[in-house]
Amino acid sequence: MAQLPVPLVLSAGGQSLDDLRREAAACEACDLYKLGTQTVFGEGPTDAELMIMGEVPGDKEDLAGHPFVGPAGRLLDRALEEAGIDRGNVYVTNAVKHFKWRPQGKVRLHQKPNAKEIAACRQWWTQELAVVHPNVLCCLGATAAQAVFGSKFRVTKQRGDFLEIADGVLGTATVHPSSILRADDDRREVEYEDFLDDLRAVADHL
Ligand code: URA
Fold first, then answer.
1. Residue 31 DSSP label
2. Binding-site residues, ligand 1, Cβ < 6 A
3. Which atom, in ligand 1's list, is nearest to the CA of 143?
4. Which one of 46, 54, 82, 194 is most buried, counting C-beta atoms within 10 A?
5. Which fold is adopted by the domain 17-205?
6. What is the pLDDT of residues 116-175, one digit of tens each?
């Protein structure tokens, strides 16, 4: 397992999730606020045992203002249920909180956030982590995993490993559900089963 690039010091400065959500709604730490409809902050119970972190809100999330409500979110919900994890007890967020897109005809095409945008948003997920202080932080996909474990982290090789990332918080990573949706027909079921195995391992660590 990778070492953390920057040690995580968890502090939300005495702020609640509602305080942070209000502050993040006005965030202009990078230019993505100009593209997104709104800041899509994390959601879930303050005392959640599990925090799940994706990459960046998609088109549906940008319009709704809630994380993981589109196709990837539906796959995540199904997998959590099958892994025996109660979604109502999970805090769900993203490494970057504004939708990044470029136009293609009438479609807003998802774009990967760059290193500067990921760094600008670090202040939000670290504070969410400080307030929620879950037993496990599970990163979905390379962007979230590298935000936590550093740019050398490879989800293909290191998925399913657990490392203490802060006092009493275990970090782990698996694939992003979007990658399962994009997989070839003959691979999709296998990749979904592997994802389920990773989530079952998360459940065992809660
Ligand atoms: N993909 C993500 O990484 N996050 C969302 O909220 C939705 C899709």
1. G
2. 54-58, 61, 67-68, 70, 72-73, 94, 178
3. 3
4. 54
5. Uracil-DNA Glycosylase, subunit E (3.40.470)
6. 999 999 999 999 999 999 999 999 999 999 999 999 999 999 999 999 999 899 999 999
